[in-house]
Design a protein that fits this description.
Radius of gyration: 14 Å
Distance between the termini: 28 Å
Number of helices: 3
Strand content: under 5%
Low-confidence stretches: none
Amino acid sequence: MNHLLLLLIPTGIVVLLYAFRKVRLRHLLLSAMSGLLALIAADFVCSFFSFNLPLNALSLGMAAVGGIPGAILYNVLAVIFA
């Protein structure tokens, strides 16, 4: 049930943003994809320094909803609290 909720919350946020702000869907998808790619690239680079970022539903959702700033925030928090 929790995994379903983790998927429905970002989906609801995207739908609300699209409905009320009249943001183009292409822009939202581009932002989500760039955030996910930034998170995956950071995980790849961190693996060279023996530091692995935990990629789970929460981290992927944060990067997808927040875009590149969300991925950066997740990386900084992961380093601080590691």
